[in-house]
Amino acid sequence: MKSYLFNFKNLIKKYKNLQNFDIFKIFFAIFLFIFIIFLILNENNIQYFLNGFNSLSNFQCYVLDVGQASSTVLVFPDKSVFVVDTGSVDSAKDMISQMDYIFSKNKIKDVDCLILTHSDADHVGGTTQFLEKYQVNQILRPKILSESEFEVEIDENYLVSTTVTYSNAITSIYKEPNCQVEFIEDTYFDKFGIEIFAPVKDFDKDTNYYSPFIKIEYAGKRLLLTGDATDEREKEFMQANAEEKYDFLLVAHHGSKYSSSIEFLEFVSPTYALISAGDNTHPSQEVVSRLKNLQVKGIFCTKTDGLIGISVFSQGNLKICSLRNQFDFPLLVTVVGCGIFVILGTVSRDKRKISQLS
Ligand SMILES: [Zn+2]
Fold it and tell me: DSSP secondary-structure letter at 220?
C-alpha cells in the first residue's frame, strides 16, 4: 500500500512537471505563430530584419522625419549623396541623427551636393548644423538674396529675404571649405539621372515660387521632388515637360491645398505619394482626397510614418519602408515574447528542481 502511494505521488509530480513543460511549449508555439504572422503581413519587416532598414541596396531616397519642415536624402548606388533641404532650426538635431543613421549604414562620409529649394525657415533651418557635421562638395541655392555679409551677388532685380535663419544659412554655405556654391539653374546630372527644373522667372514675391522641381530616374523608375512649389510652378512644369507617370511624388508644400492641383496630379500620375508634414493642418484633407481619387497605391506621411525610405533595385523593383510604424511592433512582440519565454523557462526549470529535491 505504501509503495503504491509513493508511486502515486511520483506520478502526480511527473504530471505537474509535464504540465509546466506543456505550458512552456504551448506558449512558445503561440508566440512563434504570432510573430511569423506579423512578419508575413509586412514583407518590409523581413527586409528590415534581414538587411537593416537602409542596406536594401541600389538607389535610396529618404524623406526625413523633421516635423513641419522638409529634408530629403538621395543615396545613389555608388554611394554618392544628394541632400535636398535641411529642415527647420528646431528639427536640426533629429535631421542629423537620421542622416548619421543612413550615412553610417551606407558608409558615407561626404555629401556630393546640397540643394536648398528656397529661403523658408522650414527648408534651410538646419543648414549650419548640417555643414558643421558633413563636408559638402557642391551647393545649389535659390536666387533669393539674403542679408548675410557673405552674400556674393547683389542684384536689385532679385527678391531679398530678410529672415535671420536664411541669412545664417547663406553665411554657412559660403564658409563651407572646398565647396562650389551656385544658383539653381536648369541642370542635368547625367551620371545620376537627376534633372532640375528651375523657376522660369527671376523675380517673384512668393518665396515658394522659387522651388525647383527635381526629377530622378533610376532603373526606369521616376521620382519627383517639388519643394514648396506653387500652382504657378506646377503650370510651368507642365508647359516644359511631356506628361509622364511618376512612381513617387514628394507632394508639394507639405500637402498644402494651394499646391497639388488636380491637373498637376493627373499630369504626373504618382503611384506613391510621399508627404513631409508635422502640424495639424498639413497635409490638407483636400490634397489627400485628390490623391485618393487618383487611386495612388499608397500615401506615406512623416507625421504618421516617421522616416520614410524608398529603395529602387537595378532591375526596377521597389521597396518602401517607414521607420515608425513598421518595425517597432514586431520588435516589441519579439522583446516581450522573449522576456516571457525566459521567465516561463526559468519558473518551469525551478519547479522541476524543487520537485526533484522534495
Ligand atoms: Zn515648407
Answer: T
